[in-house]
């Protein structure tokens, strides 16, 4: 009877493998034999299971399994309990469907697409689950999920996202303006620290120190205290975020990047805005331990040279020496880095000697 039937087709994979192959056969043994040949494993001890639920494929149920069903080839000693499932939004029906949680890259992409433009049903379901959940780990996962899908990143004005502006002064009418102000406030704090150090500088050098600080302050005012670093509406190169407002941790001072891949979008929600305030603009060459004392020492020992205040400006207030880091990546140990001695003073102009002209006899 089976010999007159059309061969059944399956998609076959090995355990823990994402690569699938098409296999056809008129019996369970034929499919098993071809599968073992494809994956170069012995037939004795091997068996086939349905990838979805782990049920073993036998001769009794062979013809009842749908065409193109996914199978897992198991060798002796291996076991498969079936894949995990999740609900996802079907774009054609606007309803929810069940599909494997993690099967391959395409499945992960579909899974992530749920959160890119979340349906109200996803948010409601997560809230209901969170209300009834007791396990701490699942509570955290659900809370993080809700936080992510509830963010209103696209909104910019107070009218578009009133909750984002809770606790802020009425003068802030859009998110970019507040984040720009937030960054500028940090830079102003650095300037005050530099200015307050003047009292520790010797009386003879204090005037020169104050002159350098005033020059830096004037340049900062012209640059609006580099508030553009946090402003997503600023052109690329002038900001530390993407056009959507995503910031990535730049890693500790002694590393090229962040191993934990920390990221945040303070434009998304009030909670993200508050959490972003814990991120640090960390000086690679330390401000208090190194840069400010080096500036004070330079003005105290000029020896006829002119201090390059613009070099110190770049170390104190610009991304040349600042890294945006998650609080966990902010190392408070001594950095043991020094200012470049070749750049502390401006290059001195070389005097050109005029050759004496010999008088002809």
UniProtKB/TrEMBL annotation:
Gene3D superfamilies: 3.10.20.10, 6.10.140.170. Heterodimer of DFFA and DFFB. Interacts with H1-1. InterPro entries: CIDE-N_dom, DFF40, DFF40_C, His-Me_finger_sf. GO terms for biological process: apoptotic DNA fragmentation. Nuclease that induces DNA fragmentation and chromatin condensation during apoptosis. Degrades naked DNA and induces apoptotic morphology. Residues 6-82 form the CIDE-N domain. The keyword ATP-binding does not apply. This is DNA fragmentation factor subunit beta. It is found in: Cytoplasm; Nucleus. GO terms for cellular component: cytoplasm; nucleus. Its main location: cytoplasm. GO terms for molecular function: DNA endonuclease activity; hydrolase activity. Keywords: Apoptosis, Cytoplasm, Hydrolase, Nuclease, Nucleus.
């Amino acid at each position: 009877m089976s010999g007159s039937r059309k061969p059944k087709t399956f998609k076959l994979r090995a355990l823990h493998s994402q690569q699938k192959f098409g296999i056809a056969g008129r019996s369970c043994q034929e499919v098993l034999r071809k599968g073992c040949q494809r994956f170069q494993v012995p037939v004795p001890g091997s068996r086939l299971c349905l990838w979805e639920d782990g049920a073993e494929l036998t001769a009794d149920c062979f013809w009842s399994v749908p065409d193109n069903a996914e199978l897992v080839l198991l060798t002796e000693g291996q076991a498969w309990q079936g894949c995990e499932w999740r609900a996802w939004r079907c774009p054609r029906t606007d309803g929810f469907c069940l599909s494997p949680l993690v099967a391959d890259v395409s499945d992960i992409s579909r899974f992530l697409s749920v959160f890119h433009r979340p349906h109200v049903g996803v948010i409601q379901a997560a809230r209901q689950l969170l209300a009834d959940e007791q396990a701490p780990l699942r509570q955290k996962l659900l809370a993080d999920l809700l936080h992510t899908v509830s963010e209103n990143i696209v909104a910019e004005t107070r009218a578009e996202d009133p909750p984002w502006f809770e606790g802020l002064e009425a003068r802030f009418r859009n998110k970019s303006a507040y984040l720009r102000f937030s960054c500028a406030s940090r830079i102003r704090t650095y300037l005050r620290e530099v200015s307050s150090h003047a009292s520790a500088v010797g009386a003879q050098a204090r005037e020169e120190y104050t002159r350098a600080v005033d020059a830096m302050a004037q340049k900062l005012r012209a640059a609006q205290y580099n508030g553009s670093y946090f402003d997503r509406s600023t052109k690329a190169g002038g900001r530390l975020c993407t056009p959507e407002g995503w910031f990535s941790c730049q890693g500790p001072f002694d590393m090229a990047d962040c191993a934990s891949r920390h990221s945040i979008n303070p434009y998304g929600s009030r909670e993200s805005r508050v959490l972003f305030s814990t991120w640090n603009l960390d000086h690679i060459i330390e401000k208090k331990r190194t840069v400010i004392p080096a500036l004070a020492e330079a003005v105290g020992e000029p020896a006829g040279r002119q201090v390059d205040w613009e070099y110190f400006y770049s170390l104190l207030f610009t991304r040349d020496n600042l890294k945006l880091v998650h609080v966990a990546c902010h190392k408070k140990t001594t950095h043991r880095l020094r200012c470049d001695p070749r750049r502390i003073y401006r290059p001195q102009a070389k005097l050109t000697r005029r050759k004496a002209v010999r008088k002809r006899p």
